[in-house]
Structure formats: C-alpha cells, structure tokens
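Changelog-adjacent note: as of this version, every example in the card shows the full chain rather than a window. The one below runs 79 residues end to end.
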Amino acid sequence: MPSAKLTSKGQITIPKEVREALGVQTGDRLAFRIRDDGTVLVEPETVDLMSLRGSVRTAVKGVTTEAMDEAIRRSRGRG
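Full-length structure tokens:
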C-alpha cells in the first residue's frame, strides 16, 4: 500500500502509483470528500470540456453567407 509523509506545512507528495491511478498530472486539482464514517475520498477535480459546451454565450452573433454577400454588394456599389 502506498504511503506518504506529512510535512510541517501540511503537504504531502502523492506516490506515483496513486497519481497514475487517479490520472492526475502536475497542476491538476484534487478534491477531498470526508464521509460520515471518517473515510476520506480523494478524487481528481477534472472538467470535461465537452460538458461546458454551450455554457458560455458569445457577444457576437454569427453572420450568414447571405448577409456577407449583401455587405459585399453594398460595398461594391459605393466604390
């Protein structure tokens, strides 16, 4: 069973075997969940980018090809 030593600053180095099992890398965040029975779960705090799809609205709306064609026609008429 992997183990780690707690430093005076409350830090630990997570053993490589555990990092690999969690699928975490440098810079990733971990979540600690404490159950009622005192068991502590450690889980990667990862976000699937596809799950964020549509959660952010852009300020600029799309332009249709028809609108682009019309803008080109108007600009040619002025030139």
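Structural remarks: The two ends are 77 Å apart (CA to CA).
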